[in-house]
Each structure stands twice: as structure tokens, then as C-alpha cells.
Design a protein that fits this description.
The chain has 370 residues and is of the alpha/beta class. It has three domains: 82 residues, SH3 type barrels (Roll); 160 residues, P-loop containing nucleotide triphosphate hydrolases (Rossmann fold, 3-Layer(aba) Sandwich), CATH 3.40.50.300; 58 residues, Ribonucleotide Reductase Protein R1, domain 1, CATH 1.10.40. The strands form three sheets. A six-stranded mixed beta sheet has the order 10-9-8-11-13-12, with helices on both faces. Strands 1-2-3-5-4 form a five-stranded mixed beta barrel. Helix 4 links the parallel strand 8 and strand 9. About 3% of the residues have low confidence.
């Protein structure tokens, strides 16, 4: 195996998946960029443009089956075709906009997901909680990066307040422009690891990547002055390889992040709320007036803030609704697949009967001398 693949994040788990590789003429590569209808991949030696093979395309049933940035795939170098996507270690998604419940793939095989927020007029702790919930659902380890700390005199106070609301996710206050506290992020720059940067437009993701690269490689734009809202500088997803062998995935800014996945993300983000709920007298307590309700008691004595509890209920309800729509869609896909399978069986039986009839006719003619 080419040693440069390990710099791209290749490891033993992916190696085991190709031990019994049926496509002997394929090689592993990592997707570095996704465009409409094609992908850029890195083979460890060079970058090439590839497309989905016909066999792979016909086997796709849901958007989750498609490749995305960060995925490891097996490609045919001669025809530049993707034949297979290797099993992922993590997958960051969001629900597609509109009435559908399709998952939109954002990045795969991430080790750390940087949730970047700007310490300016657009700072919003509830938005951070939403991103954190989806980050836990992805399977990656979330890291909260409060950028633009140079714009706020009491940045440490804001960071301490956020630490009081969040567990199990480290929080760093840095400045990508002045490089203040940027050394605190060096602990994550481990060769062979992958970091994805997510957050709203204007929080400074491109500036952070430029600071980590040590050069201005990505374009940046100034935010609007009256509300600090950003403009979409990055319009595509791209994997960038640092000189030390660390992979960075720059994700476009998102104004809206609708949740996907199950309730694990909500439970980890609001673990304090669910721990309090364990103290309720009744296991099926709705926290709406039952005697012995630990949630209502915590709200009254100030142990739990009303804002945090309302945000917990909102995200939990959203996650439940999304999960139900997803299950219904999977059932529809399964029913459609079963329908096609039934048709294939029917036509196969018709073909077999037709061949038997033709064989019987030929035998009859031979016996009668025709």
C-alpha cells in the first residue's frame, strides 16, 4: 500500500475492507472534491477526475449510498470509474431543504468536527447546540471553536458560560486574523487525521484554514457591518492536505441545519437535562405537572434554565419528526425494491415457461418427422 495514502487518512480498518476485494483491477482513493456529476480523488500519487460506474449507479437506493467528500472509494484507474464506497467511520449530514426527508451528505470519515462560531454580533449559543447535536449524530468528535476572540474583551467569560451548557466537547476561543490562541488547536493536527470545519457563513472557517495552512490559500470576505452576517465564500466542499499529513475539509456556510439521525445527538448535547429527568417519580413522566417531576423542580429552583429546556424539547421533537419521515421513506424504497424484485421473478418464470414450451414443440416435431 502506498505510504502517501496514510497521510490521507488510510488506516487498518479500511485496509481490512479490501482484503477480499472482488474488483482486483481497482485501487483505493479518497474523494477530495465533489462537483456536479463527477468527483476529484487522490490516489496517494496524484489527483484524478472520476465518475460513478454504471453498475454502482444502478445499485443506489438512497442518497446515503452516494459518495461524498472524505469517502474512501475503489476506482478503476483505466476508465476513471468509482466501483465501490468503503464503509465509513463517520458521516456528517443534514436534512435536505424542502418537504423531502433525504439526507444531504456533507463529509465522511471525519475524526474531529470543528463547530466554528464567531464572537461578534452573530454569536448564537442555540445554533451551536444545534450543530453539536448533529455532530454527535455523525460519529465524529465535536470541537467548538469560538473565532474572532480579538473582537471581544470578555471572550473568556463567554467561553466559560458556554462550557456551563456543554459537556464532552472542548471549547477554544481563538482569532484566525491575529493568530491569538491558535496554538490551542495544534493538539488536533495529527498526521493521518481528518478535521472538518462547519458553521454558518461569516464565522471565519476559510480564515481558520488559512491560519492552519500558514498561507492565504482560500478566499475570504468581510461580513456585513450592521449584523455581522457573512457571505458564502466557500461554495463547494473540498479536502485540503496540510504539509504535515493532516486533512482539512472546508464545508460551505449553512444558514439552516436540519437534524438527521436518531436521538443520540440530542441526548449527548443535553445530557444534563436527561440526567435530571431520571429523578422523576414516574418513568413515563411528561414533565407537565405530574407529582414528583424532577424537571419541574429543577426549573423552579434554577438548576435548569427554561431556555435550555425549551431548546432541548425543540430539537428532540425535530429529531423525532425527521426520524419518522426517514423511516417512512425507507419503507417506500423497500416496497419499490420488492416490487421490482417481484417483477423480475415473474418475467423470469415467464421466460422459463416459454423456453420449456419451445423445447417441447421442437421435440414433438422431431418425433413426428417434421
Amino acid at each position: 500500500m502506498h505510504t502517501n495514502l496514510f497521510k490521507l487518512g488510510w488506516n487498518q480498518a479500511f485496509q481490512q475492507q479490501i482484503v477480499s476485494n472482488l474488483h482486483s483491477n481497482t485501487i483505493p482513493a479518497r474523494i477530495t472534491r465533489q462537483d456536479r456529476g463527477s468527483y476529484s480523488v487522490h490516489t496517494g500519487d496524484h489527483k484524478v477526475r472520476v465518475k460513478l460506474s454504471g453498475t454502482f449507479h444502478n445499485a443506489i437506493q438512497t442518497p446515503l449510498d452516494l459518495p461524498t467528500v472524505g469517502d474512501w472509494v475503489l476506482i478503476e484507474p483505466k476508465d476513471c470509474l468509482i466501483q465501490r464506497v468503503l464503509e465509513r467511520s463517520s458521516l456528517f449530514t443534514r436534512q435536505s431543504s424542502g418537504s423531502t426527508s433525504d439526507d444531504q451528505l456533507l463529509a465522511a470519515n471525519i475524526d474531529w468536527l470543528f463547530i466554528v462560531a464567531g464572537l461578534d454580533q452573530d454569536y448564537n449559543p442555540k445554533r451551536i447546540q444545534r450543530y453539536l447535536t448533529q455532530a454527535w449524530n455523525s460519529g465524529a468528535q465535536p470541537v467548538i471553536v469560538l473565532n474572532k476572540c480579538d473582537l471581544l474583551e470578555d471572550a473568556d467569560t463567554v467561553r466559560a458560560q458556554l462550557e456551563g451548557m456543554i459537556r464532552d466537547a472542548p471549547i477554544h476561543a481563538v482569532s484566525a486574523t491575529t493568530l491569538e490562541q491558535m496554538e490551542s488547536l495544534s493538539a488536533y493536527l495529527i498526521p493521518g487525521k481528518t478535521i472538518a470545519l462547519s458553521g454558518s457563513s461569516g464565522v471565519g472557517k476559510s480564515s481558520l484554514i488559512n491560519a492552519l495552512l500558514g498561507k492565504k490559500q482560500l478566499l475570504t470576505q468581510a461580513n456585513r457591518t450592521h449584523d455581522s452576517r457573512g457571505r458564502h465564500t466557500t461554495t463547494w466542499r473540498e479536502l485540503i492536505l496540510l504539509d504535515g499529513g493532516v486533512c482539512l475539509i472546508d464545508l460551505p456556510g449553512m444558514r439552516e441545519l436540519q437534524l438527521t439521525g436518531d436521538q443520540d445527538g440530542v441526548s449527548k448535547t443535553f445530557s444534563d437535562v436527561e440526567e435530571i429527568a431520571l429523578g422523576c417519580r414516574y418513568r413515563n413522566c411528561t414533565h407537565e405537572g405530574e407529582p414528583g417531576c424532577a424537571i419541574q423542580k429543577a426549573l423552579l429552583n434554577g438548576e435548569l434554565s427554561a431556555d435550555r429546556y425549551e431548546q432541548y424539547l425543540k430539537l428532540k421533537q425535530e429529531n423525532t419528526s425527521t426520524s419518522r419521515r426517514g423511516k417512512k421513506q425507507k419503507l417506500k424504497i423497500k416496497a419499490k425494491s420488492n416490487k421490482w424484485e417481484e417483477k423480475e421473478v415473474f418475467f423470469k418464470e415467464v421466460t422459463i415457461r416459454h423456453r420449456k414450451n419451445q423445447k417441447a414443440k421442437r421435440k414433438f416435431r422431431q418425433e413426428d418427422g417434421f
